[in-house]
Amino acid sequence: PGEEVITLMWSFVVSIYSIGGLLGSLSAGYLSVRFGRKKTMLFANIPALLSAALMGLSWLCGSFEMIIAGRLFSGVCGGLALNIHLMYAGECAPRQLRGLIAVTASTAIAVGKFVGFALGLREVLGVDALWPVLMAANAVPALVQLLTLPFFPDSPRYLLIDKKDKEGCIKAVKQLWGDGDHMAEIDDMMAEQEVIRGEKVKSICDLFRDKAVRWQLITLFLVSSCMQLIGVNVV
Question: pTM higher than 0.85 for the full model?
Answer without folding.
Answer: no
